Sequence to fold (477 residues):
Amino acid sequence: AAEHAAALQASPQAELDGVVNALAGGYLAPSSGSDVLRNPSAAPTGRNLYSISAEQTPSEEAWRVGQQMARAILAQHVVQEGRYPRRVAVTLWGGEFIRTRGATLAQILYLMGARPQRDARGTVYDVEIIPAEELGRPRIDVVVQTSGQFRDAAASRVRLIDQAVQRIADQQDEPYPNFVRENTQQAEEDLKQQGYAPRDARQWATARVFGATGNASYGTGIMGLVERGDTWESEAEIAERYLANMSGVYRGDGVWGTPAPGLFQTQLAGAEIVVQPRSSNTWGPLSLDHVYGWNVMQPAVIGDAMWEETFQVYIEDKHGLDLQAYFEEVHPAALQDMTAIMLETIRKGLWEPSPATVQRLAELHAELVARHGAGCSYETCGNRSLHEFLTGVLEVPGAELVGEVLEGYQSQLAAALTSARPLPEVTGMELEERRDTWETAAAPVQPLATALLAAWIVAATALIVLAGLARPAKFAV
Fold:
């Protein structure tokens, strides 16, 4: 334990040294990755991480954990709804896959009623259908969204899922419902109704793994949209962007990011549970913008209790850590952004706290901007709708915020959004047009001459740009 603690303490400096060493072309020693509490040998960090062999996943331990995860999800749904879910939607992230050695992959297989087959070296080369009598429950249909990192690191596992779906869809005459088969048959009919040829509809109906269209992206393309709350009013706008960006089909045999119009929507229909597995000892659900992109897409996933707890810890300082003083000393813009995001969540109706909580957040945000200037995240400076909402909260009768603080907030915000003085005048050089006639057999350009010509072009271009910047800038408030 003492050695591990020392390794953790050495990690920040080791990371800085490692970056400098790498930039200088030095050698970085390899080390295994994963969560440093789950895998103590990952510390000290700052080394060249290696992950896992995808073909050996899910590991035997991950298979046991994945089964437990699947059983827990199904048991919770049975308690809440009195029945098994027909379809579950699961997101596969590369980092989670590496940390857990494929526990989520195991979860997906077990939900459908399949298990990995290993050879003597531990390679998972195929899947085996679990007999219905042994499974003792319905086969749950699963639709999967793969992240770009998982797709690239574990292409063979994508094919493994696809193989399982196709085989399970062929299972007949079982004592329990086979939702994979039933949903496949329904999808085939729906695709025909959308205009697919019968043969194509039958082929696409078993597709269950989707990701970036054209194998071209490492994100859903909606995070930036979600974070700019005043650029959209209806969740349907975000859903349309998501479907357009993530409807590529992944299954092998040349089908890798292939667009199939309407198919992703068809397969998502009827999904009763959305699973975004994350396991970490170093951060929580609201520590990453990817997770709160969930508060909009699936509001039930991030409940009011999670926002309330965040408010109590960071704003009300329930643990007595004097967090406001810490943020104001170290990084006031971070606390500004936190309060702005909470207020925008309230404005959108995604969190319904008490009026006192809203007032507290609005006053703290205004005080931070008045004292330290606007940090200018998008919500702090760019969201006009939030500004109007915030001003309305601060100006209600009985509000305790003194006028000078409100005035300070408004003036600091205005100062950040406008230019108080013009940019310095920069004089450049004028270029005149020149036309040369080149001989057909021109002499080769010497390397030195080429370098000088390239340098002159770069310098001239820079001067032109600077000359353009000399004009007074205009900013929209």
